[in-house]
Amino acid sequence: MSLTRLAWANLRAAPLITALNVGLLALGTATIVVLLLLSHQIAETLTRDAEGIDLVLGAKGSPVQLVLSTVYHADIPTGNIPLAEARRWTEDQRVAQAIPLSLGDSARGFRIVGTTPAYPALYDAGLAEGRLWDESLEAVLGAEVALATGLRPGDVLTGSHGLSGMGDRHAESPYRVVGVLSSTGAVVDRLILTGLESVWDIHAGEHHHGHEGDPAAEGGSPGEHPDHESDEEHAHEDDEEPHEGEAEHGHHDAPSLDPRTEAGDDREITAMLVRYASPIAAVSMPRQVNAQSNLQAAAPAFELARLLRIVGLGLDGLRAFALILIASAGFSVFGAMYGALQARRGELAMMRCLGASRMEIMASLLIEGLLLGLAGAALGVLLGHVTVEAVGSVFTAGRGVSLTGAILLSDELLLAAALVLVALIAAAVPAWQAYRTDVSRTLASHA
Amino acid sequence: MTATDPESLALSAASLSYSHGSAGTTALAFPDVTIARGGSCAVVGPSGSGKTTLLHLIAGLLTPRTGSIHVAGRRMDTASQRERDRLRGRLIGIVLQQLRLVASLSALDNLLLAQRLAGHPVSRESAVERLVGLGLGHRLHHRPRALSQGEAQRVAIARATLGRPALLLADEPTSSLDDANAELVLQLLTEQAVEHGAALLIVTHDARIRGRLEQEIGLERVAA
């Protein structure tokens, strides 16, 4: 008959009050666990999407908007920029990789992104089916797009102007699906990828038709290129030096794509995703771009931090609410323990008669608080995870954040420890009073 | 009796006085109490005569102003509080008018808790045996609330004698009982004390106890 069993028996003897206290503690804990899991996974997803992108070059405007539209594909772009001018900056030796993006169309609610094979490579997206795009108007679907639309290689997809899906349909130039990417958990899962030339062809493309080779080479490492067929425009790419970001040098037979030799190049892209060769570039490059060009340079990490701070304000409010819940649970535990102390004073005095020390009397009450705290913490953590898992499976499909309750964060252990501490503190005052109880007077007064 | 070696006595309380609260208030003075091992004694007096105070002094729950207390040869009054708790658990069994069984524990668990708190090895068999011996075999797993007054009395007495104490203290064990039950409890207390080798000290104002124990010490009501 240990003190723990005694405490357990006392808790079981008042099942309603015990359940109330455990429930209150669990609710507060669960609320915080949900917040922890949500903010962790949102931040993780957002960070993952921006990984490998040190800088975005795009049209002037809001830097948050630029990052949202080109990194997270969640806002409308700030505008277009001349490909030639973007190139001028990305030929810089401070740049290790530059991936052009061209946005503007969507299909079935998913954005169509004109880019190079380096873009899916950025997210380690391999091919689940088919191949990457080779020619204009060939499209490769992100894993979620394929799942949602049921489209497979060989199917046809009609894009429409605008990102909302409400714009004019480009019915005369449908895409041919040639591949499906494997699932990555990143934003690329929800995109339809194609070559830059497709976008140009659809929108302004008469005079550029057929010159798809060069943008595909931009920034992509040769090894990631799709199998080239006998297309003569592709043949020379295999010979090119593996200098990422400086890939134009070998393209003398495609002069119209080199901005330095063709002043009249008016092709536009939406943004260029830049990876620095060295972190030192972060010091000088964004400032130079912003000061010396019509482009805007925005650092996703910086803008992300700003965004998360804004999101964090909302979470702080919820967190305060959860803390109030836990505090009231603490008061409830205190009330219950205090009531129990009054009811059990005689018993506790009798335990002293049986040889219990004052410490043991105090411990028996503290253990009750401890058990309440442990039960509340365990139930709360469980409840929080079940909630997030349920929310994740029901509400987040297709929204870019995949939520799961099946991860355990180290913060949760801290939280559980804090909760147990709250219950212990709530039990401490009654326990201290029990410690100080005058046994003789207690036994005499209830005669 | 004064010349007897404390080692051979279950209880020796000499020249005890006690004052409530701060020093300077009038002290209660008590007659000496000496009980041989296995002996018995009734301390009889009206309410307010300090019977319970005497019992609490002997149990080490109060500290006397003067005098000395030995239980089974161990000095109680000068020991530290923790040491007194230990000695009390090991040497003294206590039965009060209010039984104060732990309400959330079964009869058996009450006995096991007592073993644990007294620092005795917890022996389920001996606890079961004791309850069965008192006719409570069918009540092992009942909580105090489910027991009759007589059954609860027996559990409380079993709890007090389980650790084979040298001294069994009882405070008004019979006062609230009718004649038949008072007789039963008194018999049980004396039987159990004898059976387990404990000296018995009963403090009471119950006249029915008179003449039933080996010794009797009278306390006078003190003027406030």
SSE arrangement:
The complex is a heterodimer of chains A (about 450) and B (about 220).
Chain A (H helix, E strand, L loop, with lengths): L2 H11 L1 H35 L5 E5 L3 H8 L10 E2 H8 L4 E13 L2 E6 L2 H5 L4 E4 L7 E4 L1 H7 L6 E2 L2 E2 L13 E7 L9 E5 H8 L9 H5 L14 H4 L32 E2 L1 E6 L4 H12 L2 E4 L1 H54 L4 H38 L14 H27 L2 H7 L2
Parallel strand pairs in A: 4-10, 6-9
Antiparallel strand pairs in A: 1-12, 1-13, 2-11, 3-4, 3-8, 3-12, 5-9, 6-10, 7-9
Helix pairs in contact in A: 1-12, 2-11, 2-12, 2-13, 11-12, 11-13, 11-14, 12-13
Chain B lengths: L8 E10 L9 E2 L3 E4 L3 E5 L6 H9 L6 E6 L2 E2 L5 H11 E5 L10 H12 L5 H10 L15 H13 L5 E5 L7 H17 L3 E6 L10 E4 L6
Parallel strand pairs in B: 4-9, 4-10, 7-8, 8-9
Antiparallel strand pairs in B: 1-2, 1-3, 1-5, 5-6
Structure description:
The complex is a heterodimer of chains A (447) and B (224). Helices cover 51% and strands 14% of the residues of chain A. Chain A has 447 residues and is α+β, with helices and mostly antiparallel strands. Chain B has one domain (6-218): Rossmann fold, CATH 3.40.50. In chain B, strand 5 and strand 6 form a beta hairpin. At the A-B interface, helix 1, helix 11 and helix 14 of A face helix 1, helix 2 and helix 3 of B.
